[in-house]
Every structure is written in structure tokens, then in C-alpha cells.
Amino acid sequence: xxxxxxxxxxxxxxxxxxxxxxxxxxxxxxxxxxxxxxxxxxxxxxxxxxxxxxxxxxxxxxxxxxxxxxxxxxxxxxxxxxxxxxxxxxxxxxxxxxxxxxxxxxxxxxxxxxxxxxxxxxxxxxxxxxxxxxxxxxxxxxxxxxxxxxxxxxxxxxxxxxxxxxxxxxxxxxxxxx
Length: 178
Known about the structure:
Helices cover 29% and strands 36% of the residues. It is α+β, with helices and mostly antiparallel strands. Helix 4 crosses helix 5.
């Protein structure tokens, strides 16, 4: 059972992660449809490296790793690490394979972005994804992110080098101030 609601939305809630969630998260991360586009999870994760590897970038700086729930968990969203000197953080999202394409990533991303700009007072949020990951790219663009550049052949998907696409969203853009 996921922890308490951290952020409540119309479509999904973002809940804290409990130790009971570890096996579900590990199953998602080890699924080929997830590993294909997430470099960090390319190799299967065992129990020992799971907790440190999953939460290693998150500290007491306001970073958050949260379960995406529509009653039951359907994914995970992360915002962090937070770079205080630049008021910037990175956004990442992982949706369970059986729930991909249902809009959960977009809904969770919007909540995480709102938290970043309203609660953490960030100026900028970045996201990166592999060029062939059309679902992630559409989701980021729906949230309001702008494609800012490409790192050519900076990632590997299914044994092939692919471009990594860099997205950014500024606080003033999110607030509609141009």
C-alpha cells in the first residue's frame, strides 16, 4: 500500500514511497518496455542495489521520488536533485508498462512541475528522454516543455545509438508570462 498523499491532483495523486512498494517498483524497472528508454535502468536490478540506485540522487533539498496513483500505483515520478545555486531540478517519470499511453505521465508531470515551481520556487525544470520515446516526448510537450537540443547518439536503445533530447521549462513560461 502506498504511503500518504503528498500531492493530490484531478487525475492522479502522488504518494510517498514505502518499503512495501519496492518489489512493484523493481518489477517495473526491470521490465524491457521500461529499460529500453531509461539508461539508468538498462541492466536488471537486484534487491541489494535497488534502494541506493533508485533513491541515490534524492536528498533533503526538496527532491521528491513519488508513486503515481490512480487508486493503485501506476508509475513513479521524480523531481531532483535540486540545484540551489541555479534554482533548477530534473524531472523524470516512469509509468508501468500496462499503463503507458493512458495519460498518467502527463498528469504526474504536471503535478511535479507545479510542486517544483510553487513549493520549491524553482526557475527551471529540465527533462531528458531518448528520441525514439515518442510517448515521453508528447507528454513533456503537453506539460509545456520546449525541446532545447539534442545530444547526438548519447544513449542506447535496443542495441542502437540514439539521440537524447533535452527539454526545458521556465517558471515564467509555466505561469504564462512568456
